[in-house]
Amino acid sequence: MENMKAFRMVVECKGFRAAALAMKISPAMVSRRIEKLEHELKTQLFKRNSRKVLLTTAGEQLYQRCVSIIDDYESCLRDVKSFNAEVSGCLKVGIPHSINHLHVIPNLRQFFELYPRLRLETVTGNHCMELFSHGFDLALQCGPLPDSNLYYSLLGYWRKHACVTPDYARRHGLPAHPNELLSHSCLFHFDNHHRSWKFMIGGELTEVRPACTSRMSNSLDLYQMVKNGLGISYLPDFTVREGINSGEILSVLDEFMPPPLPMYVVHVNPKPSPKEQAFIDFIRTLNLATVAGPAS
């Protein structure tokens, strides 16, 4: 099984050295395990004469089979180990910065009171595609899944808001149509490479490209800029909900907003372990995704 795990990691990490780092063993050990597997199967799994890791036809067939075999094996081990077991150990989770700051951290005390033997590691950012290579157990994904083969638990749906302060509205007015954003100060997320916002115009999902005056690397910083009257930003409701409810922030262009987006907890294995399920249950109590889904 260890040889098959090494083979899988080389494929998914796209290299022997990267697989060794992920498995916390030496590259030589990874190579030996692949050689043993090839000797056992009496066939070559990788094309060695390339700078990139390329699978042979036999390697491609084995990869498809070994993923399900390893997942079933590890799921079986977890089920046996978790029988009547207490939730404990280390849990590594990738969480968007604003959710961690505004929702997770303020409620962690009660989570640790329920599970005092669980050690939590949270890393802020978008880590959905790094579950295997960076050792994450869970990752919170706000939006469509980048890979349909990922295992996930759907939390619900959320939507975006175009946000300003009443003070900004008094000084500059409010846009009545997305095209009017061209005459406003617009604040963008750094990962928005197209520098566009999506709106429903004439029944069609349309990308509008306002003039970008500033960019920030997370939505929490953008929210602070909005609250300081520096412009309009396009932000998730779980980031701005409190400000909108208190009247500190105005939500504009609501009638042009696109359909709600899904929010998932993505996990490495088909069935979450007890510690993973404990955190998923905790995330559900935070009511991050409360908008009715598109089907509703």
Automatic annotation (TrEMBL):
Keywords of the record: DNA-binding, Transcription, Transcription regulation
Segments crossing the lipid bilayer: none
One Pfam family named in its UniProt record: HTH_1
Family matches, as PROSITE patterns: HTH_LYSR
Record InterPro entries: LysR-type_TF_proteobact-type (IPR058163), LysR_HTH_N (IPR000847), LysR_subst-bd (IPR005119)
Source species, domain of life: Bacteria
Stretches assigned to the HTH lysR-type domain: 1-56
Family note: Belongs to the LysR transcriptional regulatory family.
PANTHER family, sorted: HTH-TYPE TRANSCRIPTIONAL ACTIVATOR TTDR-RELATED, HTH-TYPE TRANSCRIPTIONAL REGULATOR
Name of the protein: LysR family transcriptional regulator
